[in-house]
Amino acid sequence: MMLINLVLFFNLLGCNFNSKIAVSEDKKVNDLEVKYKKSQFVTDTLRVLQNDTAIFRKEEVILHRPCSNPEMVIKYELIQPKLNAYYFIYNLQEQLVLEGKYTEEYTYEGATEKLGNFYNSKNYTYKTNGKLQSVVYMVDGRHYKTELFDTKEKPKEIIYFDKKSAEKTKIELYKKGKLKETRIFTSFNNYYTVKAT
To answer: 104-195: what CATH class?
Structure first.
């Protein structure tokens, strides 16, 4: 009964349309994270697992890459995604693999994409030992940056990309988690180096 009263109290807070400040509180209830905001735009936050057959369609596909052997991979597709919901998607080992807001359409510089996707998201990949390998950031539906991590899960390299051309703009190199140098690209493969102080 206390939990129901608490949820009703936070629902009343979420319906306050007069407030100009967006304050959020995260509450965890039975493996489902719900975000409450004091504004008129409330975003649902969902925590889901890829092996949930009610949410994901599982498909095994064979990838063919030039100069390499075909590889069998498993592809997961959302069956009925909830629009404008912020997803935390976990794999079978309960590692976070994707987080982002699902939107049906997105407009970038006058061009509208109507495919329905995570246009602003973070994709996580892991090594075979379970440690974090990389985080890929998508902003406005474009590849923005990639963070690579060492065996101790400290940053090893951060690569920034131009959103229009998808070319590298700079690379930050780290040693033991501390910035060592930055390579700033002037063209495709030409760069100058700035040492960290």
So the answer is: alpha beta
